[in-house]
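Re: [ENG-882] Designed sequences occasionally contain unexpected residues at chain ends

Forwarding the minimal case from QA. Structure tokens:
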């Protein structure tokens, strides 16, 4: 199997679940207390809580914050949906747009009195890097950052998506420094804390494959490949591109039959009819946004393996185009 979508769909491992992280922590929480201490020390925070990483889970997080909120349109679907719901409740949200090249538009942050901003060190789907130091120069707002694919110590509050780290549960771990009330131990998803921390310890990235894949894809697809974002602007272990005249989900589905796993966006979009919300936020129409494909690399592939993968993708691409023309 060639797993080229690990940032969104992790390598799920068999796990041995002990009672240490069940609700028995209410009786004996020594193991969880130690885990929490180690987790917080590793990332230099003072407390953590868990939430359901969904519209209403994140909405609850926003309602706990005291102040004006800004949200980048390059954030996870659950954060964007929560912000829209937050507006429906009568609260103000400053939306941070994406530029045509996929970068975050910093201009709107100037002269704004903000308290919190949901913005990560990378944009979802495309994995275009965002300079959080630049954000700090423009605003005093505390940065709340999804750190599942890349942790940047500049952030003030870090969110780790348990599913993207372990393949289990819809919970997220929120590391903070007292911005939220202490969570009742009975409401803390101790198992997700454990799974997320193990996922982070075992997280591996490969930065050598990107250049090789890029070269081979360009050579094989020639004028049929194009780029919404500059490959050099994305995380070093990711590659984003587009193929003309097909819907990405068509290639995703048929490639999976050959054990080549790729993606067209966030977890909720894998192989589905929804086009990339991120690409549309960059100013592209819905039809064009359906061309988007993302690759991410966690292991080393030989030059021969990469050539094999690209050859198979190209073969399936041509087959899809022929079928679409009939």
């Amino acid at each position: 199997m060639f797993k080229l979508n690990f940032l969104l769909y992790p390598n799920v491992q068999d796990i041995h679940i002990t009672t240490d992280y069940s609700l028995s922590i209410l009786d004996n929480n020594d193991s969880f207390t130690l885990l929490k201490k180690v987790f917080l020390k590793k990332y230099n925070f003072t407390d953590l809580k868990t939430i359901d990483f969904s519209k209403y889970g994140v909405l609850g997080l926003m309602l706990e914050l005291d102040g004006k909120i800004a949200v980048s349109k390059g954030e996870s679907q659950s954060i964007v949906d929560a912000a829209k719901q937050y507006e429906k409740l009568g609260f103000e949200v400053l939306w941070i747009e994406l530029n045509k090249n996929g970068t975050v538009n910093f201009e709107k942050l100037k002269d704004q009195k903000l308290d919190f901003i949901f913005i990560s060190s990378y944009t979802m789907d495309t994995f275009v890097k965002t300079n959080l130091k630049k954000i700090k120069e423009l605003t005093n707002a505390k940065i709340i950052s999804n750190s599942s694919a890349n942790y940047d110590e500049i952030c003030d509050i870090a969110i780790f998506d348990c599913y993207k780290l372990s393949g289990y549960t819809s919970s997220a771990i929120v590391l903070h420094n007292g911005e939220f009330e202490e969570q009742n131990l009975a409401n803390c998803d101790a198992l997700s804390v454990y799974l997320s921390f193990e996922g982070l310890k075992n997280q591996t990235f490969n930065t050598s494959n990107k250049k090789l894949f890029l070269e081979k894809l360009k050579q094989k697809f020639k004028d049929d490949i194009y780029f919404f974002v500059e490959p050099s602007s994305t995380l070093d272990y990711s590659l984003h591109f587009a193929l003309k005249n097909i819907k990405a989900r068509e290639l995703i589905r048929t490639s999976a039959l050959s054990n080549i796993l790729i993606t067209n966006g966030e977890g909720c979009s894998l192989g589905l009819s929804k086009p990339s919300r991120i690409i549309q936020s960059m100013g592209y129409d819905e039809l064009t946004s359906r061309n988007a494909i993302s690759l991410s690399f966690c292991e080393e592939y030989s030059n021969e393996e990469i050539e094999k993968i690209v050859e198979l993708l190209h073969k399936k691409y041509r087959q899809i185009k022929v079928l679409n023309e009939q």
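QA comment: On inspection the terminal residues look reasonable. DSSP finds eleven helices and twelve strands in the chain. Proposing we downgrade this to a documentation issue.
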